[in-house]
Amino acid sequence: MHITPNLNLLWYVVGYAILMVIIGFFFSKKVSKSEDFILAGRGLGTFVLAGTLLASWVGSGTVSGGETSMAYSFGIIPSLLSNIPALVGIGILYFILPKIRETIGDRKKYTLASIMEEKYGQFARVLTIIIIILAYVGIVSYQYKGVGFILNVTTGLSVGWGTTIGAVLIIFLAAIGGLRSVANTDFISTFIMIIGLLVTLPTIYIIAGGWHGVISNTPHSHLTFTGPLSIPQLIGYLLPTLFLLLGDQNMYQRMAASKGDRTSKKAQIVWFIGYLIVAPTISLIAFASASLFHNIDPGMALMATSAVMPQFVGGLLLAATTAFIITTGDSFLLSAATNVTYDIVDRLSKKKYTDAQLLMFTRIFVIVLGLLAYLLINFFPTVLSVQMYAYTVYGAGITPAILSLFLWKRANAAGAVSSMLVGVIVTLVWEVGLGQPFGLNSSVISIPAAIIVLIIVTLTTSKRLTPSSDSSTSIES
């Protein structure tokens, strides 16, 4: 079956985009200082916070990479298994939430780099900045391509031109209102997402001939536990998601933006439930799509179903998909720009900038990093490939070190910095230098290596520190 563009579906996408721009402008008027822009004035309620957590996490990496591409390329069980790491990660974050809020909010530390410096020293801060920019620019880049897929389905416009339009829209929305604006557009987007997916799921299975019709048009290997993947290959797709989520600055900032610990905890429960509904639904829709469309980009599996469904259902699905993509792009772009402003410009400049100037710089860097993300997407063949790269660079490079702040107080600067270096270097050598040997994603090698190095180096170097020595001085000596 071929995808036939339907211009009528475009109106649903345009309607959603106009609504987001109007809401973005409205809340941008409430931004008067940098804390409003970065942490929404620390005033997010339970449902707005839950909505922005869910919408930020479930973006193009889910609707055109992750669950979608895995269901189309490997089968339903691998795709459903890919839901588990995020659920585990949300559960772990629930228990360390009070420490996250205290560290980011109460100490006025808006970025992970400033938190890492406090415990592990200046070099750890620099490494954190580099890793976040490498990973987040990659994550933003495939959000643009997700919009390109949507415009291709609706108008026949090339994915390239659609990607350009997506870049402009995402950069604009992130720059005007910061988290105060993004969080509220996320809240509305979440409802559109859930309704669109729940309506689409039964509709597409009816069109595909029910479960029997779907599996009768699916390769036998796609009905097995791992699909065409080996166990190590499957693990290579699961680990990056868990380790990105556990150390994700973007999520930490959101949890610190709530009204209090009770609000954050309730929001995380709602987030967990929402993800438990959304992610498996996407997997099942993409699996049905694989039985209908046999020669399309795997990243288009979810969106392609809009071409065979009743117009209202297809339009609702595309509006929901657009919601996933734009909100995630805005969130990661804003978070990375915050790093550049506070960890590079403000930190290294001899001049003392005013709050208004820092707010202006953050908006400027949203645009600059957004343009870099646009350039990056041209170097990766699929959304899933850039997703795995970005997740693994971050998960191996930052997460073991940042989690040790909350879970293993003995960790020191030497161990953390060594772990970060090993995580990033192994990832880049495995992915770029060696070209992914054995078809394994680098996460299978780099994440365990980073954890092992953190433990071994900490244990072997801490014995040489005097009781009065702290980690900051040890890394600088």
Describe it for me?
With 477 residues, the protein is mainly alpha-helical. It has a single domain (7-396), classed as Sodium/glucose cotransporter. Helices cover 78% and strands 0% of the residues. The N and C termini lie far apart (65 Å). It comes from Scopulibacillus cellulosilyticus.
List keywords for this structure.
477 residues, mainly alpha, disordered C terminus
Compile the SSE list and pairings.
Layout (H helix, E strand, L loop, with lengths): L6 H22 L5 H6 L6 H12 L2 H4 L2 H8 L2 H6 L2 H23 L5 H9 L1 H34 L3 H49 L2 H7 L14 H17 L1 H8 L4 H32 L8 H4 L6 H38 L6 H22 L6 H15 L1 H9 L5 H21 L9 H20 L8 H6 L1
Helix pairs in contact: 1-9, 1-10, 1-16, 3-10, 3-13, 3-14, 3-16, 5-14, 7-12, 7-13, 7-14, 8-9, 9-10, 9-16, 9-17, 9-18, 9-20, 10-11, 10-14, 10-16, 10-17, 11-14, 12-18, 12-19, 16-17, 18-20, 18-21, 19-20, 20-21
Residues in β-strands, percent? under 5%
Overall 3D form? globular
Regarding CATH, which class? Mainly Alpha
Terminal Cα span: 65 Å
Helix content: over 70%
Q: Determine the number of helices (DSSP H or I, runs of at least 4 residues).
A: 22
Number of domains: 1
Structural class by helix and strand composition: mainly alpha
Rg, alpha carbons? 22 Å
**CATH fold type:** Sodium/glucose cotransporter
User: Which stretches of 5+ consecutive residues score pLDDT under 50?
Assistant: 465-477
CATH architecture: Up-down Bundle
Transmembrane segments: 6-27, 39-59, 71-97, 123-144, 156-179, 191-211, 231-248, 269-292, 312-337, 358-377, 389-408, 413-432, 438-459
Keywords: Membrane, Transmembrane, Transmembrane helix, Transport
Protein name: Sodium:solute symporter
Main location: membrane
